[in-house]
Design a protein that fits this description.
The chain is mainly α. The protein has one domain. It has eight helices and no strands. The radius of gyration is 17 Å and the shape is globular.
């Protein structure tokens, strides 16, 4: 449990908080409450609104990770003070999942359609990113798909930090999350601008 589930729970909390904040919550602010329209009537640019929305989702993800860290730390499942590095990592991971969520908000026509990215992207990622069992237990053909999930890389980094492992920092996981985040921030900017500017 300590080695696998506890650090993975923090990583999945990051994913869920950031993704759902920029899907359902952002869609409601955009479509029903017209909050973004009101913001656009101010000197704020579309880019600033979109980046702030992603940053807010990452902040919520970091807050959720901090709560999880405190609870799991109280049970001895986190090595201190190294475990505190989970907070900036959670913000970093929150940017990735927040950007993906906002990308989907930019392309999905109705709120009911969010079931598709949840079913096709979030659920498989939650189950098969090394969260509950090693990726090596998957069939050989499925392993590359699992390694492509951003949650896999966040879980690996989370385990390294929470368990106080003295291994080499997986720089490829950090690089993967950085590239993934940059790509989806750009995609979110493109598709949300199309959605907001009519």
């Amino acid at each position: 449990y300590t080695a696998f589930i506890a650090p993975a729970l923090i990583a999945t909390a990051v994913m869920n908080n950031a993704f759902f904040e920029t899907t359902y919550a952002s869609f409601v602010r955009m479509y029903y409450q017209k909050t973004f329209d009101g913001m656009l009537a101010t000197p704020l640019s579309i880019e600033e609104i979109i980046v702030a929305e992603i940053a807010w989702s990452a902040t919520k993800a970091a807050a959720a990770a901090t709560i999880m860290l405190g609870v799991l730390g109280a049970f001895g499942y986190v090595q201190w003070p190294q475990g505190l590095l989970m907070i900036p990592l959670a913000f970093f991971g929150g940017i990735a999942f927040g950007a993906v969520g906002l990308f989907f908000t930019g392309i999905i026509p109705t709120i009911e359609m969010f079931n598709l990215p949840i079913f096709l992207f979030v659920t498989p990622m939650f189950l098969f990113s090394g969260t509950f069992f090693p990726v090596s237990n998957l069939p050989v053909w499925a392993q590359p798909f699992a390694l492509a999930f951003p949650l896999y890389h966040l879980v690996q980094l989370s385990r390294l930090i929470c368990l106080g492992l003295h291994e080499t920092i997986p720089l490829l996981s950090i690089l993967y999350l950085a590239v993934f985040s940059a790509l989806f921030v750009l995609l979110a900017l493109v598709f949300m601008k199309k959605r907001l500017v009519k």
